Amino acid sequence: MLIVFLGAPGAGKGTQAKTLAGKKNLTHLATGDLLRAEVAAGTELGLAAKAFMDRGDLVPDDVMIGMIQGRLASPGSDGLLLDGFPRTLAQAQALDEALASAGASVDQSIYFKVSEEELVRRLAGRSTCPDCQRAYHDTFNPPHRADECDDCGTSLIRREDDKADAVRNRLKVYGTQTTPVLDHYRTAGKLVEVDGEQAIDAVQEDLAVAVG
Ligand code: ADP
Ligand code: ADP
Ligand code: ZN
Q1: Is any atom of ligand 1 closer than 6 Å to the C-beta of 140?
Q2: Cis ω before 86 (30° cut-off from 0)
Q3: In whole angstroms, what is the distance from residue 72 CA to residue 80 CA?
Q4: How do residues 124-154 score in pLDDT, each as one tens digit?
Q5: Please, are residues 136 and 142 in contact by the beta-carbon 8 Å criterion?
Q6: Residue 86's domain is classified under what CATH number?
Q7: Closest by alpha carbon to 91, among 44, 116, 58, 138?
Q8: 205 in a domain, yes or no?
Q9: pLDDT over 90 percentage in the chain
Q10: Which domain holds residue 60?
Q11: Does the structure show a pLDDT above 80 at 40?
Q12: Does residue 157 lie within any of the structural domains?
């Protein structure tokens, strides 16, 4: 099974992906998490990607497509959950082609629909575990102990790209470069919309129904 999560920055993709992947034994592939790991490790790819990420711009397609291709066949799980990829039409087409050559295809894409006002509230209050990448929110989803990850105890951080200027740019980039991806899957009859504006548990319930 191959599921693609779509939605703006802050829509709740990562939060829902962690739960769904655990429940359905899917491998959770989050390109943002993979990139941040490259940055933290100081690799060449990480160094090249960091400036784009900090500004809230997209990392170039050839880098992203190269990064995902080798990971599409992942043993030891019942399928893949792609979170944060594809983010451009070129990435969506490259994904279709890579899957087609392996006799596979995207089974379903889930679009988490959230208003811009709510996205800004979520990103402004987000803190993130630099170790396991779990996201928290100051008011909507606080950790049990202040500034500490519930899962691994690591001190939480604020992402550089969750600052106001970068957030504005990310939302703009999403509107111009990523919204065409929604139409790509809609046209293919593979887009399911979930009301992402609801509380985390309610979104989780709707998602479970959508995925079946
Ligand atoms: P969020 O889900 O909060 O929008 P991510 O963690 O998915 O953020 O991504 C963080 C940053 O990593 C993006 O702003 C972008 O710079 C880069 N990135 C992640 N995925 C992609 C992608 N598929 N294409 C290009 N850039 C990406
Ligand atoms: P994305 O991966 O789409 O960028 P995240 O899962 O990181 O989004 O969520 C963004 C922020 O919003 C985090 O601070 C998270 O705790 C919070 N959040 C996620 N889902 C909800 C929700 N349904 N209601 C309120 N806050 C949420
Ligand atoms: Zn953690």
Answers
A1: no
A2: yes
A3: 8
A4: 999 999 999 999 999 999 999 999 999 999 9
A5: yes
A6: 3.40.50.300
A7: 58
A8: yes
A9: 92
A10: 2-114+163-211
A11: yes
A12: no
The predicted pLDDT at position 148 comes to 98
Supply the mean pLDDT for the chain: 95
Asked if residue 15 is part of any domain, the answer here is yes
Which residue out of 161, 176, 184 has the highest number of ligand 1 atoms within 8 Å of its CB and is therefore the one to mutate? 161
- Give the residues across from 155 on adjacent strands: 148
Alpha-carbon distance of 185 to 181, in angstroms, equals: 7
**∠ CA(190), CA(191), CA(196), 5° rounding?**
150
pLDDT average, residue stretch 32-45: 95
Residues 55, 34: Cα–Cα separation, whole Å: 18
Centre of ligand 3 from the C-alpha of residue 17, in Å: 15
Domain contains 130: no
| Cβ neighbour number for residue 71 with a 10 Å cutoff | 14
Contact 119, 201 (CB under 8 A): no
Please give the tally of structural domains in the chain.
1
Q: CA 169 → CA 31, 39, 77, 182, 193, distances in Å?
A: 19, 20, 36, 19, 24
Structure tokens at 166: 């970068």
Whether this prediction's pTM lies above 0.90 is answered by: yes
Ligand in closest contact with the CA of 206: 2
